[in-house]
Amino acid sequence: MDKFRKGFPVLEQYTYLNTAASGLLPEKVWEFRQDHDLDFLIKAGVLKEKMGELLTEVRESVGSFFNCPANQVALVPNFSFGFNTLLEGLEKPQKALLLKQDYPSINWAVESRNFEVSYAEIDENLEQNIAEAFKKEQPDFFAFSIVQYLNGIKLSIDFFKELKENYPDTIFIADGTQYCGTEEFDFEASGLDVLICSSYKWLNAGYGNGFMLFNESIQGKVSPKALGFGSLQGKYKEREGNFIGKFEPGHLDTLNFGSLKVALELLKTMGLKEIENQLQKLLEKSKAAFEELGLLEEAVIKREQHSSIFNIKGDEKLYNSLRSQNIITSRRGDGIRISFHYFNTEKEVDFLIKQLKKFAG
Fold it and tell me: What predicted TM-score, i.e. pTM, was given to this entire model?
């Protein structure tokens, strides 16, 4: 759809299939950033007086977008900052469950601390593997990506909601970085205790901004240790010892977090249901073509649900061949990762498939 592509000049030069690595910056976000820095240039301290108001608006926008009360939303610069701060607030040792070969920023952060760690395999039986690991290990917390960065395997939202009902004492910590912005998501109804997301990918908000969503019950289970003057500054953080303030110890960047607010407004204008439908069309078309060409691993082929991220069989020669046609992808693992967002089209899928067939000879 033309309305999906409007405001992304880079699409005039490239077939951009690389949102899983870096989302595009929309013109509307860029315009906000230009205006913000001009105000900073000529107003300086006067702009600072309005920082609290803007950050409150950002927090409320995030809460509204994902259905989470604003006083349970923390603004963080990225996933890793938020996740490590959360882990430092957990009593140790604890039993942790991870997914084998999940995103390094999850697994490395847990493995580097004094936790007793077990793993579930990522394959076509992912949900079953997790359920069996829960039954065997009874973990204190489960940290995982909703969508796998390597191959796009996507966990069922209904599955971990049901799992939480069966294991209410386990803390569920989800990375939404490869998920948020691809479909409608209701945090309050999800069963998650914590969702953490960097916003530079599918939310198209640029770098330096992210957020954490908390279930109210988590506050008695985690004791964050970070604290600073910023912990008590602004609406929702006035009370000493408040929970979200311990994830925001210093000054927050109004340029970057303001960019997040504008990006969320743009997605709302597009319509999450329309975005979800567009991605479903693209993933179904591309998955069928990749499968026909023998480019997908069995674990992906056999699953009913999938994201719009794929890792196809291919080496550096294929990667460079695609790049020579201005098709932007990533090398990940043993293959080439391809990711479609709402601004991509079925014509671009056809063009990609044509190039893959041409390369295969």
Answer: 0.96
